[in-house]
Design goal:
The structure holds two protein chains of two kinds.
Chain A lengths: L2 H11 L7 H20 L4 H13 L5 E3 L4 E3 L1 H14 L5 E2 L10 H12 L3 H22 L2 H4 L7 H14 L3 H15 L6 H6 L8 H18 L18 H5 L21 E2 L10 H13 L7 E8 L1 H7 L10 H5 L2 H11 L9 H5 L1 H7 L2 E5 L1 H6 L6 E7 L4 E6 L12 H12 L5 H12 L7 H11 L8
Parallel strand pairs in A: 5-6
Antiparallel strand pairs in A: 1-2, 3-4, 5-7, 7-8
Helix pairs in contact in A: 1-9, 2-4, 2-6, 2-20, 3-4, 4-5, 4-11, 5-6, 5-8, 5-11, 5-22, 6-8, 8-9, 8-11, 9-11, 13-16, 16-18, 21-22
Chain B lengths: L1 H11 L7 H20 L4 H12 L6 E2 L6 E2 L1 H11 L16 H16 L3 H20 L11 H17 L4 H14 L16 H18 L19 H5 L33 H13 L7 E8 L1 H7 L10 H5 L2 H11 L9 H4 L2 H8 L1 E5 L1 H6 L6 E7 L4 E6 L12 H12 L5 H12 L6 H7 L3
Classes of the chains: A alpha+beta, B alpha+beta.
Chain lengths: 470, 455
């Protein structure tokens, strides 16, 4: 079976007009969410480390690094925006597939779209192409790919970025196939994610961005006429050493092509209201609910129990923090996030600030949080992904709260208004309201935009650079 | 802690401590590498990648060899890494299944040129890069590795080490550079080797990503502190993700005492190393005997299993690419019998589409020999038997690969290789001057040398 060929044939022909309205709307939401996160990330020190480095590379100025006030090559802009998209841990993801497609696909497609001055319709079709290739590939290699130590945001994301980049460059079906084939050679390996994440190492930010950059490179190489092995996913009949067989035990190859043009990955995305690992969101939500609805103060708390599904309990439930913990470690710790939510009745960036993390009280409260895997919950997973909190006070009272699906899941979606608010809250310190509103309206009416670079110019012109100079 | 020990080795390595023979060998490797790139100059594939990198239009700070285009040092490393494998004549380490030059030299040359680093710093960085790359590659047993290629994967650690050394990173930064390299390195799938023009891209990508990893570490980015073995409880480091039973001790055994660059071979023939014993035997047969290609009935090749499996059944057709033919024992045998030689000129479109050569290729039968398989990789034997229609036959066996250090690498033959390749770009006079400069590299500025390596 020539999976790559079938996919490339489909996506080469895909046009905006063929897309269902809900997919078009979701594509705009993806872009709005992505841009808000990137611009908001300008407050992070890593954004400045990056800013300085990429700027110093001195590449040709052809695409913008969002909210950073400079242009660079399409490859470096893809890399730079990829980093910005991941710094706050607010990025979208494909539910329960361990992948953040937004770290790789939008940065690649956006950089080329800006340079090529494409219209909104073409941008949407290219973005959907990238998400679809990545989404399908993520399904095909799940879960063994993750168990083997790879992080699909970097590996799978890179194939999506290559396909989306080839689409926006008008390389046709042959060019999309060639770009995906080239990617099998240069795809970033993206291993050791867990150790980077749990150790709080900043390399954690780099695999998606590298995938975005490699995606642009693959498409540019294909455009120059470089050729590749035609079936990068399955490999040859003789060796069977395509990407899927190298990266996982028993790939479900049919997921690559089943229902092409009928089912889409975009509606399966979750979006993040909180700046933290997705597996912590249910716990944060119930903690906030419990303290807002009940008269609980931290001093009175004897113990707290979070009951949740297996993956959340093992990946983020046992990580205890201290005043020296990094931002990243705290974003991946249910105990910390629950404690901070209980203290402040909300979880925004200020609950993850240096000052907050340095405060011993939050870690003392976090030490009272126990996260357990609940067999009843595991039974209904993944149709539902419930989280329950039980707060026991020293006086013996018990307060509980429950959610069946965290806010932002397809089962409990954020509304368009939620996204607009998220965008404003992330960008309010960096852009004036008028520009923000103009941007929101431009993105939500993207099909009417004749030149994507106008959107980029709007951001370029309205960011207050003063606030990011350090 | 393997990563820490490797980083300490790289960080503390100094030119003054290098044994004299290591310095001599390193210069040889640089000369061989330069020759491989210059020799590729006339090929369409080379032009394509050089112009691609030029047209990216980035800051002109490092040179694409042969073509003389200047671009960013990352792009130059990418392009030169690609160019260095187009001819399939790059150096290598047989026990590691690795081509260190292709990933280390482009990164070190490009970075030394743009940072205006001195020749001694360059040589030290290259030694560090070869050592790291060779050792990481040796820790991954070939048969137990997945379908990836070490020049791209292990090669990224190598170029990160060389780049980190040139940037003057300290030990903690070097540990981070290795950790970041492990995260970003190209997967380098083997399926792409044969018959595609993306084949030489993995060392280019390794060179570039190595530089980027070192730059990221310099900027303060941090990475996993034990990238090779991973950390408990998962232990999913680079070595055990890519290989079933990694030989961790190879990473540090005798590190700083024994230099693996001394075991590096050069390629006498423009073809996959696995074919070289067969090519040498066939060349000897056609040069020592009168063999009319029209009279050939059959060409039997017995060799070790890996060579037979990977290169034995690949029969070319008129549309086959250069890399397909470089990795095809049938094509190579046919080409040797037809031309009595093998060189980059064996892969012109006229040659590949010549029906006489393609007919001869069909007469080649390659089989694996158990005894030969047992002695690989210490030896890499091949026995070629050419049978003529009149019943006479000629037979020759080669056991140890030509230009393997254990068999000796005659200097005059190495120089002949360099001059024949350099002639594609440089006049004889200039090629001799460049050879002299590399011979006395410790007295030459790298950025000056780069100026001489262009058309």
């Amino acid at each position: 079976m020539a999976y790559a060929e079938v996919m490339a044939d489909h996506f080469g022909k895909l046009s905006y007009e063929m897309l269902p309205p809900e997919v078009i709307h979701q594509a705009k939401i993806v872009l709005l969410d992505f841009m808000g996160i990137c611009i908001g990330a300008g407050i992070m020190p890593e954004a400045h480390q990056l800013n300085n480095m990429v700027k110093a590379w001195g590449d040709k100025e052809e695409a913008s690094v969002l909210g950073m006030g400079f242009k660079t090559s399409v490859r470096s802009a893809a890399f730079g925006n990829g980093i910005l998209s991941t710094l706050l841990e607010l990025q979208d993801g494909l539910q329960f597939r361990g992948i953040h497609i937004s770290e790789a696909v939008p940065p690649a497609v956006l950089a080329l779209g800006e340079r090529e001055k494409v219209d909104g319709k073409k941008f949407i079709a290219s973005l959907v192409t990238g998400y679809e290739v990545a989404g399908r590939l993520a399904e095909a290699v799940f879960p063994s790919h993750l168990k083997r130590g790879y992080m699909p945001s970097g590996t799978v994301g890179a194939f999506g970025a290559a396909a989306g980049a080839a689409k926006i460059l008008d390389l046709g079906s042959a060019g999309i196939r060639e770009s995906m084939g080239i990617m099998a050679r240069i795809v970033p390996m993206s291993i050791e994610y867990e150790d980077n994440k749990l150790g709080g190492f900043t390399a954690k930010f780099l695999h998606g961005p590298q995938a975005a950059k490699a995606g642009v490179e693959a498409a540019l190489l294909a455009q120059a006429g470089v050729t590749s092995f035609p079936e990068p996913f399955a490999g040859s009949d003789r060796l069977k050493q395509g990407f899927c067989y190298i990266g996982c035990d028993k790939p479900n190859m049919n997921y690559l092509t089943d229902g092409l043009g009928k089912t889409y990955s975009m509606p399966k995305l979750y979006f993040k209201p909180f700046s933290a690992c997705r597996h912590t969101h249910g716990a944060i939500e119930v903690a906030i609910k419990a303290v807002r609805e009940n008269p609980v103060v931290p001093q009175d708390i004897e113990s707290m129990t979070i009951r949740t599904y297996h993956m959340a309990a093992i990946s983020t439930g046992q990580n205890y923090t201290n005043p020296k913990s990094t931002f990243i470690s705290c974003q991946f710790s249910i105990p910390y996030l629950v404690a901070a939510s209980i203290m402040d009745h909300k979880l925004g960036l200020e609950q993850l600030s240096k000052e907050k993390i340095a405060n011993p009280a939050v870690h003392e409260l976090a030490a009272k949080v126990k996260v357990v895997e609940d067999p009843e919950i595991e039974k209904v997973f993944p149709e539902k992904s419930p989280s329950v909190i039980e707060i026991r006070t020293k006086a013996g009272k018990v307060f509980t709260a429950r959610t069946d699906a965290a806010k932002g899941d397809p089962q409990n979606p954020m509304s368009e208004q939620d996204f607009i608010e998220k965008f404003h809250s992330l960008t309010s310190q960096r852009m004036v309201e008028k520009s923000r509103q103009e941007m929101v309206s431009m993105v939500l009416n993207l099909e009417k935009l004749d030149d994507l670079s106008k959107l980029m110019k709007l951001i370029f012109g309205s960011i207050s650079i003063g606030s990011i100079s350090k | 802690m393997y990563a820490k020990k490797i980083a300490e080795f790289v960080g503390s390595l100094s030119y003054e401590d290098l044994p004299r023979e290591v310095i001599v060998k390193t210069k040889e490797c640089t000369r061989d590498h330069v020759g491989c790139i210059l020799g590729a100059y006339p090929l369409q594939e080379a032009k394509m990648i050089a112009e691609w990198a030029r047209d990216l239009g980035d800051r002109p700070e490092s040179t694409i060899l042969g073509f003389g285009y200047k671009t960013s040092c990352r792009n130059a490393a990418l392009a030169n890494g690609y160019l260095s494998e187009v001819l399939e004549m790059q150096d290598g380490l047989t026990s590691a299944n690795m081509h260190p030059a292709s990933c280390v030299q482009p990164a070190a040359l490009a970075l030394a040129e743009c940072l205006k680093k001195g020749p001694k710093e360059f040589i030290t960085a290259v030694v560090a890069g070869y050592e790291v790359g060779n050792r990481v590659a040796e820790s991954l047993p070939a048969e137990k590795s997945t379908g990836t290629m070490k020049t791209g994967t292990a090669g990224t650690f190598a170029s990160a080490a060389a780049a980190g050394k040139l940037l003057g990173l300290n030990v903690p930064q070097l540990i981070n550079a290795l950790g970041i390299a492990g995260f970003l390195l190209p997967l380098s799938t083997r399926e792409n080797v044969w018959g595609t023009t993306i084949k030489p891209a993995h060392p280019g990508q390794a060179s570039m990503v190595g530089i980027e990893s070192a730059l990221l570490a310099q900027k303060g980015f941090t990475g996993c502190q034990e990238i090779f073995m991973g950390t408990p409880p998962r232990h999913l480091g680079f070595c055990n993700v890519i290989s079933q039973d990694p030989l961790y001790e190879k990473l540090i055994e005798g590190l700083g005492e024994k230099y693996t660059i001394m075991d590096v071979y050069y390629k006498p023939y423009s073809a996959c190393r696995l074919s070289h014993s067969a090519v040498e035997a066939a060349l000897a047969l056609v040069q020592e005997n009168v063999i009319d290609p029209a009279m050939v009935q059959k060409i039997e090749v017995k060799t070790y299993a890996r060579a037979s499996r990977e290169l034995g059944k690949r029969f070319p057709n008129p549309e086959s690419s250069i890399s397909f033919c470089q990795f095809s024992i049938p094509y190579l045998m046919a080409s040797v019998v037809w031309d009595r030689a093998i060189s980059p000129k064996s892969y012109t479109r006229e040659k590949i589409s010549n029906p006489k050569i393609l007919e001869l290729a069909k007469l080649v039968e390659v089989t694996a020999d158990e005894a030969m398989t047992r002695v690989y990789p210490e030896k890499a034997p091949a026995r070629v038997r050419i049978i003529l229609r009149n019943g006479t036959s000629f037979e020759k066996q080669v056991d140890v690969l030509k230009w393997e250090p254990s068999r000796g690498i005659p200097v005059e033959e190495q120089m002949a290789k360099y001059y024949s390749l350099a002639a594609e770009v440089l006049s004889r006079e200039k090629a001799e001057m460049v050879a002299q400069k590399i011979h006395h590299l410790e007295r030459v500025e790298i950025s000056d040398l780069m100026k001489d390596l262009v058309k």
